[in-house]
Amino acid sequence: MDIIQNCEVTGFIKDGNRVTGVRTNRGTINAGKVALCAAGHSSVLAKLAGFDLPIQSHPLQALVSELHEMVHPTVVMSNHVHVYVSQAHKGELVMGAGIDSYNGYGQRGSFHVIEHQMAAAVELFPIFARAHLLRTWGGIVDTTMDASPIVGKSPVENMYVNCGWGTGGFKGTPGAGWSFAHTIANDEPHALNQPFSLERFVTGALIDEHGAAAVAH
After folding, report:
1. Strand 133-144 vs strand 18-24: parallel, antiparallel, or unpaired?
2. Which of 141, 128, 124 is nearest to 64 (CA)?
3. DSSP assigned state of 79
4. What are the strands, taking DSSP E only, across 25-132?
5. Within 13 Å and on the Cβ side, how many CA atoms surround 92?
6. Which one of 191, 193, 212, 217 has the fewest CB atoms closer than 10 angstroms to its CB?
7. Domains in the chain, please, with CATH?
8. Cβ-proximal residues to 11 (8 Å cutoff; 6+ apart), any chain
9. pTM higher than 0.70 for the full model?
């Protein structure tokens, strides 16, 4: 495997409805098969390939505090007050909540989200009222209408998509990667990811996981 950093995809090379390569700002990469795994920018790249994805992109932000004495040896997530809290090995408190409600690609969040998630953390753990905010950051997540990912074939021949994970992709990465590799190698979905096809948004066989998506949606 070759990992090429600072290499922006600018388009795709197609022969009819079959993808044969990828155009980048550093040149062309010929490919027999292309796997599209671009998280919050998946819909942008799908549009370049000639099809639409039923996903929305939202900013998701987290924050970290200054060093705090070690009092929190695990991760706590509360759906009731909408926050998760963990403590890094050096002592920083790492906190996050749900996605910002607006669609966008700006990697920064809204102040009211920070305010609400810090208030929620203090409600859970009053001792954290003494913690000082050090920095915040944001990333882009892609969400589907049924809060479940899309893992399978695309309308373009030899192009495969793995997207729509919202904020839960890191939890499903091992199984999703294995089944996605099977799909690419065999041009057919594995039994594990077959229900997560793009076609479910046409047939109506949705997989409603809003209850299991925790604070993400």
Report:
1. unpaired
2. 128
3. T
4. 27-30, 34-36, 55-67, 76-78, 83-87, 92-96
5. 12
6. 191
7. 9-54+145-216 (3.50.50.60), 56-143 (3.30.9.10)
8. 22, 23, 48
9. yes
> Position of tokens 């155009």?
23
Q: Read off the DSSP letter of residue 99.
A: -
H-only helix segments in 14-80: 42-49
- Structure-token pair, residue 202: 């046409």
Closest listed residue to residue 48, CA positions, set 74, 20, 23: 23
10-residue block means of pLDDT along the chain (217 residues)? 92 97 96 95 96 94 91 86 90 88 82 88 91 89 91 97 86 88 96 94 83 48
Terminal-residue alpha carbon distance, the chain: 34
Where b means 16+ CB within 10 Å and e means fewer, 189-212 reads bbeebeebbbebeeeeeeeebeee
User: Which tokens go with 82?
Assistant: 């909408």
